[in-house]
Write a structure and sequence with these properties.
2 strands, globular, two-stranded antiparallel ribbon, mainly alpha, 15 helices
């Protein structure tokens, strides 16, 4: 009895110590985040000087920095989460790679011109004057940042693009009524809530099925790997080259579809010719085990995490600095313009804010995406990364406004649900063989490393995360809209408007 009581007391003390450590780390992260916003204040003030609207622009810059922090904390997890969950990258390694490539993508290839009315959500001509537009953009930016912050706190990966869209819509309605909104565009965005995850999940499941049936379930896994892994890596190289050209380098190079296809095919062929002898050499002496085959996907997976981060930084930095650039452009010109240039100093705030948010708060969402939805290994994570690139390319070709967050998370769920279906299918086969031969099912397992075939199906995907994430996706636009509308109304009352 004494020993049991002592063990319980020690366990409680251990829990208290763990919670205390986590709380102290949270406070440190919050303090560093506030320090970053202070740096943004000083940096923007030194750039802007003491002009007529300098205070307004500085406040907008601080809010833009806050939004960038939240994008780094939430959105970037989709690029590196599967790689971390599969143990292809350590958490520190993933943070470093993502931070470097996110910042590089934002600064080197971030859009030089951004539509001030995000994706054509509202009509700026409906605004009474430039001051109303500026306050609407300020409210939209702060509301979007606040909502992404809330989502990160509850552990739900959401689309920061949709948060900005909701913020702009809500502030626009509060400023000029429902007629200001481009409703057909909003319908397309609502459709993407379903299209993005379903398409991402289906493509990831198809690739995982291909790998399972053509490599993992083959008698000679080594020979099958030599045949198919070079092709899969070459497909990834071709897809990501197209992805980078269309999404990552659009600032510096805008080729036509034929050129993009030609470049992607050339990279596909070159990669296949390079990788094939490398895989053949790696196969020498390789054990005929699943674990050995999975290791072949580790290096391509690391490259994919880096390339996804670069393209994300180039493509999504506008979520942080788009409304800020609109505010800067409008205050400088005095007129509401459909498109404005993004000053370099604004892009720098976005780039470093994303990296800072990733380091300070990113691990929570990285673990959610990479570890807590379904079990990852390099092979599954490879399918998730490849699915993300292919889905974005298909959506771009069809003109569908999909979310990279929804695609990546949908791909993780797709992999998990395929594992459930495949495990159940194989369990039925083994049970049938057992009844026919009266051999214990476990002795018929094709690989001793696959014990999950005898596990209960519900353990392979956590339904609680599915419901939490789906709910967060559905309410992102309306919640961000309501927040923005409320903030704009508060600003109007404060200013006596």
């Amino acid at each position: 009895m004494v020993k049991k009581t002592l063990d319980k007391d020690l366990e409680r003390i251990g829990q208290i110590e763990t919670q205390t450590l986590q709380a102290s780390q949270t406070y440190k992260a919050l303090a560093l985040a506030l320090l970053f916003l202070l740096v943004v204040w000083v940096f923007s003030a030194s750039i802007i000087g003491t002009g007529e609207n300098s205070t307004l622009i500085i406040v907008a810059a601080i809010i833009g920095g806050y939004m960038a922090l939240n994008i780094g904390a939430n959105d970037v997890a989709n690029n590196v989460g599967p790689a971390v969950g599969s143990k292809a990258l350590s958490m520190v390694g993933a943070l470093v790679i993502a931070a470097i490539f996110e910042a590089a993508g934002a600064i080197l290839a971030g859009g030089d011109v951004v539509s001030t009315i995000k994706k054509g959500i509202i009509d700026p001509a409906a605004m009474d004057n430039s001051d109303v537009f500026i306050w609407a953009m300020m409210a939209a930016l702060f509301a979007a940042a606040a909502w992404v912050n809330i989502a990160t706190w509850v552990g739900a990966p959401v689309s920061t693009t949709h948060a900005v869209v909701g913020g702009v819509m809500g502030a626009g309605i509060a400023a000029a009524g429902f007629g200001v909104v481009n409703w057909p565009t909003m319908y397309k965005i609502a459709a993407s809530w379903v299209i993005s995850p379903v398409m991402g999940g289906a493509i990831a499941a198809v690739f995982l099925a291909f790998i399972k049936f053509n490599i993992i379930y083959q008698e000679d896994k080594v020979a099958a790997s030599k045949r198919w892994v070079p092709l899969l890596v070459a497909i990834m190289a071709g897809v990501f080259s197209s992805y980078l050209i269309m999404k990552g380098f659009k600032k510096i190079w805008k080729p036509d579809a034929l050129t993009v296809t030609g470049v992607a095919f050339a990279i596909f062929v070159a990669t296949y010719l390079i990788v094939k002898p490398i895989i053949a050499k790696a196969a020498i002496g390789m054990e005929n085990r699943n674990k050995s085959v999975r290791a072949l996907f580790t290096i391509p997976l690391i490259f994919s995490a880096a390339l996804l981060s670069f393209a994300h930084g180039a493509n999504d930095v506008a979520n942080a600095v788009g409304p800020l650039a609109a505010i800067v452009g409008t205050t400088e010109s005095g007129a509401i313009e459909g498109k404005v240039g993004i000053p370099l100093w604004v892009m720098v705030i976005g780039a470093f804010g994303i990296s800072a948010g990733l380091f300070l708060f990113g691990p929570k969402l990285i673990r959610t995406v990479g570890e807590q939805i379904t079990k990852m290994n390099p092979m599954r994570a490879f399918c998730v990364a490849l699915s993300a690139g292919i889905t974005v390319l298909i959506a771009s070709a069809l003109g569908l406004p999909v979310s990279s967050t929804h695609i990546a998370v949908g791909a993780v769920f797709g992999v998990g649900f395929f594992r459930e279906w495949d495990t159940e299918r194989r369990s039925k086969i083994l049970r049938a063989e057992n009844r026919a031969t009266k051999i214990h099912p476990e002795s018929n397992l094709p690989d001793a490393e696959e014990p999950e075939i005898i596990k209960r199906r519900k353990k392979l995907v956590r339904r609680s995360h599915l419901m939490t994430i789906a709910a967060a996706w559905i309410i992102t636009v309306p919640c961000a809209a309501l927040l923005a509308a409320g903030i704009f109304m508060g600003i109007s009352l404060f200013l006596g408007g």
